[in-house]
Structure prediction request, 129 residues.
Amino acid sequence: MNTSDFDTVVLVACNLFSTAPLNAATTFTVLATLRSVAEPVRLVPEAVSVIIQVKVSFDRLNSFLLDDEIKTGYQKKSIYVSKSGKCIEIEEGDFSWDDESMEPTLRQINFGTKHGEKVVVCGQGYRWF
Prediction:
């Protein structure tokens, strides 16, 4: 139902129930009120979508931060650097966010970084982390 249909229904209802006199002042006041309320109402589905995305992100962060550590004690070890100068290298790597998922989230990843480099992985998508 678009805005003009809703406006018509409200004006006819006011006329039938005689709750207010149907003159130009009342008509323009009702139309102005309905038009000013229409835009925030259109934004409700988008706001709900954003809230759901925020909850999913918080759940993922919570799961990551509360996960058990791989090693309980930290020991500094020497870092192996390959002949190419890379200390971390991934070739044709497949990775999944979910342990139960049979489908990898990232497929055929080729990546390499040298010792001391800072790397950030970011993105947007349904199955992106």
Observations:
- The two ends are 38 Å apart (CA to CA).
- The beta strands are 86-95, 106-114.
- The first strand starts at residue 86 and ends at 95.
- Residues 3-65 form one domain.
